[in-house]
Description:
By secondary structure, the protein is an alpha+beta fold. It is built from 8 helices and 24 strands. It folds into 2 domains: 4-134, no CATH class; 135-574, Capsule assembly protein Wzi (Porin, Beta Barrel), CATH 2.40.160.130. The strands form 4 sheets. The chain has an 18-stranded antiparallel beta barrel. Helix 2 crosses helix 4 and helix 3 crosses helix 4 (107-128).
Amino acid sequence: MKFSPWLLCAVVVAVAGKQCASAQAGTHQALPAPAVQILPGPDAADTGPQGSTYIPVDYWIYPAMARLQALGYVDTAYLGLRPWTRLSVVHMLERSEPKIEANPNDTEAQEIFLALAREFQPDLEHASGLMRPRTQLESVYSLVRGIGGTPLRDSYHLGQSIINDYGRPYESGFNNYSGFSARASVGRLSLYWRGEYQHGPSAMGYSPALAAFLSNTLDQVPYASNPNQDTIPAGLIPTANDMRVLEANLSFHLAGHEISFGKTDQWLGPDKGASMLWSDNAEDIYQFQINRIEPLYVPLLSKLTGPFRYVFFVGSLKGHTAPEGPWVHMEKISFKPTRNLEFGFDRMAIWGGEGHEPITLHTFLKSFFSFSNVSGAVKYSRNDPGYRLGTFDFTWRLPFLRKWVTLYTDSLVHDDVSPVSAPRRAGYHPGIYLARFPHFENLSLRVEGASTDTVSASMQDGQFLYWEQVQKQGPTNKGFLVGDWIGRQGKGGQAWLTYHLSPREEVGLEYRRAKAASGFIPGGTTQNDFIVHLRKRIRRQLEVRGRLQYEEWKAPIYKTGRQSDTTAAVQLTWYP
């Protein structure tokens, strides 16, 4: 059975839960006072033997922590490096508590802090106690999604109607995704598992003529020899009835690092709507990862850069046919020179694949250490260093508005070391976050732009960012872009107006626009999405999420005239 190792992990979690001693009782309303300070001063990261599971990036913790950070607190949160582990969030809250206690009139921050403290109190108690096994059934959920009209499901070409959804299948009609998550830890070891059943109806995709044009002309992949490509939804799309593992990882904690193997979420940018290098827009990949989960202070160096964090992972990409089976590795480092400024640099390389070059330690090291341009002859040889992308991002709480406004951006460049050195060849995803309004403490506004249509006039036909002459299906996994939903040579943006009913509850309005250049797609494409969303708790253990989306789109190369689709979704989640 394809996923039997990970299903076995889930069984282990469940069985181990029956054998574990019960957790020590506790009803504290706040975390204990922090014993250390990270900024400024030497590294005070946890070096104990306690492991901790990662928090999925679609969990309520992240928007709550991001808002608390934007209100002027949580100075040790690295927004450009997610996910976080549960204990790393505990340490962020410990270090933030004195600052929050010193501002008793900031009731909004106090409320968010207490909600987070209640969430992580069991983790704090477990970490401070004996090294006893601990397991928990984290959640059981079912998401029902109904779609009327024809949605877009092609992030690599014409657009995508439902974004940042782990590459789940969706088509017009009834869609359902039902599953559960569980976690376990003992000493330095931790285990996380989330899996679900996925149903999506059948549909008719692109015509043979359109599929051939996209493949032959835009991707330069011979369609006659590659008729079945995950990046091109062509012909009859069969009904999906799959059991899929969303996340499953085993981690070992060592000196402030989590060393893990399996499927793990990644969100490598400060933006809410997208990460240009890696997001949850596609299904997670199986990867080996080393993640510095606690801020590191290096004498002398950190006097200039401040404490920093870093992450490295390597794994294989699925759904590629040109070449087949490439691998990817990614490295990122983020710095916090001040409490109010964070900046980071990424580097990602896709290399190898059947018929091109083998996946070996030699080819990995060549890809890892190569930073210069190479000739076409080298690109098509066994010495190809791979398809290389670099990013730069920053988050800045603005002067005089530290508790109100945060400015941030993410940027991406192809075959250059960094967007800083080649701004005209870079794509951008900037944003601004107003965490509250005067006299309306519960109201927030976030606006983001997006562009991969570079300034450089030589970049045409979508054959630059997210495409490469050897790795022609780009940074995709099972057909979906792992990065920004804006896609190749596109422009657009998003806006969110949110009323926070509580730290775990909200209602809001969203708008999203995406437009592909006519130099890439003949006639261009345009998408306009209008969304209402709700997240509400019924008692403490049951959460209801609702989402209503109306979309208008134009893609003359696919369908003539203005098209529209409507999506209604309801998710029920039980937190035992």
